[in-house]
Amino acid sequence: ERLGDVRSKAVTMGKIADILEQRGDTDEALRIHREEELPVYERLGDVRSKAVTMGKIADILEQRGDIDEALRIHREEELPVYERLGDVRSKAVTMGKIADILQQRGETDEALRIFLEECLPIRKKLNDISGIAHIRYSCAQIRLQRGGLDKGEAQTIFEELKESFALSKKRQRADSIAIVGALYGQLLAAAGQTESALSVLSDAADACEKLGWPEQAAQAREIQEHIRNMAK
Which of 87, 95, 138, 220 makes a 20 to 30 Å CA pair with 128? Predict the structure, then answer.
């Protein structure tokens, strides 16, 4: 087989694995990445494609609960390649995934540090609006997870969610509007900002309906109704 054909086949197999993963067949997706893709990129000396594939393997392992191995792959097999290639965007994405895993493990201080010091400056430099919105939301989540509302971080949490929600609306990202809006709306309501809370939750519910998430949409509407009843 010609090298070009071998590469094309590996790329196609990778796409098949991505589809299988979306359908929940993680065993076969993992097998394809490991046995059909990786050996080709190793033989071709294609370090970037190998790193991308290792990242996909790590994502599947994280889904399956093997977060220690997922973390090791991101740190040891993926990140050094992007740093060597000077690929700042891929580095930021990978650092974000590392922070997500650390948050799951309860290492909230280090997760927050990575988001603010490693990821955010790159996203700002790239003017990546969606990336900045995700980081702001993740930081607010971490602060909430470690009890920040009662530890003097309430204002920071509100500001982070406000910025994340505004950026999500600017980019018209329905998924972000739905997820960020649900949390932000509830916190606004708890702070007594009724009108703002109802407006944000309305946007979140509309976004959920647009995405075909009926349960989440109904939940947002129920919270709105509860807020209205409390305000009477």
Answer: 220
C-alpha separations of 38 from 13, 22, 32, 84, 90 in Å: 11, 20, 9, 19, 19
Cα(198)–Cα(230) distance, integer angstroms: 12
Q: How far apart are CA 29 and CA 4, in angstroms?
A: 23
| Vertex 71: Cα angle to 65 and 25 (nearest 5) | 40
Q: What's phi and psi for 46, nearest 5 deg?
A: -90, 90
Instruction: Please state the pTM of the whole predicted model.
Output: 0.88
Give the helix/strand (H/E) hosting 126.
none
Distance from C-alpha of 33 to C-alpha of 76, rounded to nearest angstrom: 18
**CB atoms closer than 10 angstroms to residue 80:** 14
Q: What is the largest CA-CA distance in the chain?
A: 74
The residue type of 172 is Q
pLDDT, one tens digit per residue, over 24-66 is 999 999 999 999 999 999 999 999 999 999 999 999 999 999 9
pLDDT of residue 231: 80
d(CA 194, CA 200): 10
Q: How far is CA 127 from CA 16, 121, 131, in A?
A: 32, 10, 9
Q: Is the dihedral of CA 164, 182, 154, 230 positive or negative?
A: positive
**60 SS3 class:** helix
Amino acid at 141: Q
